[in-house]
Specification:
about 35 residues; mainly alpha; 1 helix
Length: about 35
């Protein structure tokens, strides 16, 4: 749980399922930066 304003919470709610949907914009390659953990 992240404490965010209601309007931002709505964005999270809309975008979260797309993280797991095939072919969504979240499945594309990101910027040319090394991955870090």
């Amino acid at each position: 749980m992240l404490p965010v304003p209601p309007d931002v919470h709505g964005v999270f709610t809309d975008e979260y399922p797309m993280c797991y949907a095939g072919g969504s914009r979240w499945s594309t390659v990101g910027p040319d930066l090394p991955y870090t953990d």
